[in-house]
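Support reply, case 0932

Customer input (verbatim):
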Amino acid sequence: MDYDVIIIGGGLGGLTAGAKLSKEGRKVLLVEQHDRPGGCATTFKRKGFTLEVGLHEMDGLDPRDMKTRIFRDLGVFEEVNFLKVPEFFRFINERYDFTMPHDPEEAIESLIKVFPSEEEGIRTYFKRILNAKKMMKESAGQPESSLGDYLDSIIRDEDLKLILLGNLGYFHDDPYTLSLNYYSVAQGSYFSGGGNFIQGGSQVLSDYLAACIEKNGGKVLLKHLVTNLILDGETVTGIKYQGVSKVDGVLEAEADTIIVNASIPSLLKFNLPSSYAETLKKEIGEREFGASLLTVYFGFNKSLKDLGAKNYSYFLYDSSVKGQKDIKENNSGPFARRSFTFVDYGQVDSRLAPDGKSVGAVCCVDYLADWEGLSKEEYRQKKEDVAQVFIEKLESLIPGFRDALEYYEVGTSKTVERYTLNPEGAVYGFAQSPSRVVMDEIPAIPNLHFASAWTKIGGGFSGAIFSGYMCAIKILRA
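Our regenerated output:
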């Protein structure tokens, strides 16, 4: 069957592009290998609990946020409920216990109260992130700084730097190789618009976007994998695909336009025009993959509020992290000492658990190398060992945590790779280093477009949504 647009992959980038294009009258086919749409924006059920795969909090949704315009255009706000989370995060290390407000003025005053000698640096930091886009325009063409180098230039106290870097894992694994511009735009959006959780989990948003495609005459085909591209000379004219069960054999579909929502490196497995394959291979070879994440999912027989828990998200830094220069080494060190995030979804009306119960999750930076070379039994045992490490740490933080625990499950970088097909389980696509961000978009075949965390805009829910929508606009204008 012929279509106007075929989308390879059903993550947020592909879903957003498909929803916009189908709304504007294009006939869309979206092919996704998983049994549900969403990529990292999905949930799964275990013993009555709905476990959130990716979203802790979505930044922004204030009037100036581009997502607000996108969601209004696609009717998202009419069907999806966004909950404001109570605070940005609570940071804990052996020296400080600090709760970061979402409101920037409150955050500035709270930080100055704890670090009075660093007032100038604190105000400079917030001026930078709250005016990130303006400052990016003013510095266009100049060599870009890393976040780590920038913090070193304005702040002396290492613990203050660590507090400001509390949620670094939302973006990258090392402040010294993270683009200051990329971080500033994203972090500024958290402070200007607050944090939001999708009631019922991120699957609600993904399902809504998939329904938009089908409501407007498109088709979302799950449990099917694209195996190759169809070429007519140097032009891509369609795809070959098959069910993951491989029962139906190889099928074909043709379209004037192809959107790749899958990882850009996965294109190297396809039948690309020879003139383009070498260019793409060179471009990919010049970029590093971002880190992956390990998640421990928890289901509780009560609300953790009953145990005295008061915070939505905690960032706990290990005692081995004395300053920001120690973060990268800690992220690749033993799990027993690895810094981590804990999110208690029971602090909001998440609708993820039965009445009287709640869910939560631990998340930390992870790498495929942490899990390679293990037998099935060794892999299973290591996951259990890691789960117990974090359960013990959380028992110390929230006494009674272990007794409240009804279910837990561990997802590793191997899990991410299996369900998203992202190489090395890279959840944010290419690493957002300063040199990476200033590069132009990867050159595309005229009718082959990219919409994912692997594009110039970068990863995270917002990055994928922006990428998908802008891709759709580019196609519509053409």
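We compared this against your earlier run and they match. Two observations from our side: The first strand starts at residue 2 and ends at 8. The mean pLDDT is 94. Please reopen the case if you see a mismatch on your end.
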